[in-house]
């Protein structure tokens, strides 16, 4: 079973700039879903950043993945990576966690 990661994304530029890159950011995240790394993502409330939940081999692989995020490449957000071991989880996650 792989560990899960919560990635806290914090915007460092005004929302107008964030929104101008939003579609590119979402297309980037879609690649993470297609590769089986991501489980969920979305904006924080209030909208000061986002949250992403995924499984990766290591914290370094998370950082490598997100350095290609358009938000990172345009210097409009920072990332905090939190790793945890899912000791208890809903049975719906069994397949996601086993691969």
Automatic annotation (TrEMBL):
Superkingdom of origin: Bacteria
InterPro entries: Dimeric_a/b-barrel, YCII
MF terms (GO), sorted A to Z: hydrolase activity
Ranges of residues in domain YCII-related: 5-85
Pfam family name, one: YCII
Keywords: Hydrolase
Gene3D superfamilies to which the protein is assigned, alphabetical: Dimeric alpha+beta barrel (3.30.70.1060)
Entry's family note: Belongs to the YciI family.
Protein name, UniProt field: GTP cyclohydrolase
Source organism: Helicobacter winghamensis
């Amino acid at each position: 079973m792989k560990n899960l990661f919560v990635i806290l994304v914090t915007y460092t530029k005004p929302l107008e700039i964030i929104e101008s890159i939003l579609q590119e950011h979402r297309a980037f995240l879609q690649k993470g879903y297609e590769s089986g790394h991501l489980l969920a993502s979305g904006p924080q409330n209030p909208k000061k950043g986002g949250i992403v939940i995924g499984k990766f081999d290591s914290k370094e692989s998370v950082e490598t993945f997100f350095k290609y995020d358009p938000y990172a490449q345009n210097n409009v957000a920072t990332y905090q990576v939190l790793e945890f071991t899912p000791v208890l989880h809903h049975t719906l996650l069994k397949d996601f966690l086993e691969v």
